[in-house]
Fold:
Amino acid sequence: MRFGIDVGGTKTEIVVLSNSGEMIHRERQSTPDNYPDFLDSIQALIHVTEGRYGQTSNIGLCLPGAVSPDTGRMKNANTLYLNNQTVAEDLEQRLGRAVRLANDADAFALSEATDGAAAGARSCFGVIIGTGCGGGLVYNGQLIQGPNAIAGEWGHNPLPYYQESTDGPDQHCYCGRKNCIETFASGTGMAKRFREAHGFSAREIPDAKSVMARVQNADPKAIEHFNHYVDALARALAGVINVFDPEVIVLGGGMSNIQSLYPGLSNAVAQYVFSDQLNTRIAPAKHGDSSGVRGAAWL
Ligand SMILES: [Zn+2]
Structure:
């Protein structure tokens, strides 16, 4: 058995997977609003679950942030009280065993590479395109973890071939740079750019879904915007293929649910890859929202 825990901003989920990947148990509870309660709640969740199955297990945790390789402390977590904490060490002390951590994009990539859309492939780039734009790389069943703990974090590379005449005015990113891939490829960025290009309010176009509803209704502005989105995403993915050459790219997050994304995306990527032919398969996630928690279990 393997235990995986996914800590989200509002909900914390635990799953128990059999060694063959079957989900035996799944439970959700609220994420506490402070660190001592967070540690208590994880400890209690594990003890209760282990009591139920009468055995102990290794623990993997999926967290909304990264562990700084220099200090072992959390950084970039949007659950703010986790930042600067030594989460793995604190939990290991309480639980008396090793605890493995990964951020949500890495857990997603590992889950999809293990028994998801990239099962059986030697190499996989797992991409989350939702409110943000994360990524993780898996090779031979293992997450690639480098000295900066940023392998696969393509979202803050600059968008390739950016030109104001075709891509619109500079997009300023929260990270302090401009024209990051995330500002184009995330659902948030996709909706924001549509609003800015056509003078809509956030109430009229709250998210990418509302842009896609206009595409469904054959709104030419929305169709043009979506076609540009596919092209920008293709440029961004081609850059990763040129470096890592994965067998499969798995897309997750809100934007990955758009079925009309897939027919054109591979052709668009093929135009930008340094190869006469594209053999990389691009597929939607198999496990959807469960990938984070499943990836945590596979850690
Ligand atoms: Zn950025």
